[in-house]
Design brief:
- The longest helix has 18 residues.
- This protein starts with 20 loop residues before the first helix and ends with a helix.
- It is elongated and about 75 Å long.
- The chain is mainly α.
- It has three domains: 57 residues, no CATH class; 46 residues; 58 residues, no CATH class.
Length: 195
């Protein structure tokens, strides 16, 4: 029988493992195996790992920022992380879903992509989708309208929902002119044949 003074405790916590350059590199490679990332996003992921380790009381090297820089440089050299490729893939994905240039620009800026790379990515995405005719933004707006059942894709009560449809397109980053054209169009194909 145990003494009354003896405390009963649950399972002991294991000591937090030391954060090393190798563990950080492994974490970065594992993350890149699951997600596409820009260098800024990867840096954020690694810095969050450092913060979690410090909260757990793990030993963190004093030169952790230099270690993160070295890991990112190594992964860039191995072409596992590349801002241009990330921008191209993300832009194409957003364009397919009906993303406006303004929305794409904002998302890529948040990911740390430069203006020059964004311009190249938008141009490449429009060229790949066959939108060199200058109607890439209009096609994207029509794609969003189709997905959300706006404008010409609304089956009934179009007049009652006109302002709401225009507002949805404007919030998605499309100009008022494009929002008006898409919302008021009787037929999406006819709208693309204009001009």
């Amino acid at each position: 029988m145990k003494d009354k003074d003896e405390k009963i405790s649950g399972p002991r916590k294991a000591a937090a493992p030391r954060l090393t350059a190798k563990s950080m590199e492994n974490a970065a490679v594992h993350y890149l195996g699951r997600f596409s990332a820009s260098t800024k996003n990867l840096r954020r992921v690694l810095n969050n790992r450092v913060l979690r380790a410090r909260r757990r009381g793990a030993a963190v090297p004093a030169d952790i920022d230099a270690t993160i820089d070295a890991i990112i440089a190594k992964l860039m050299k191995l072409q596992l992380v590349d801002d241009s490729t990330f921008a191209n893939q993300r832009t194409l994905s957003l364009r397919r879903r009906g993303g406006s240039t303004r929305q794409i620009r904002g998302k890529l800026k948040m990911a740390g992509i430069s203006d020059e790379q964004i311009d190249q990515a938008v141009g490449a995405a429009d060229a790949e989708r066959g939108d060199e005719d200058g109607k890439g933004e209009l096609r994207a707006a029509l794609r969003l309208a189709e997905r959300r059942r706006l404008g010409p894709y609304r089956l009934k009560e179009r007049k009652e929902y006109r302002q709401r449809d225009m507002a949805a397109l404007a919030r998605a980053g499309f100009s008022i002119d494009i929002a008006r054209k898409v919302t008021d169009a009787a037929d999406a194909d006819a709208l693309l044949r204009e001009d």
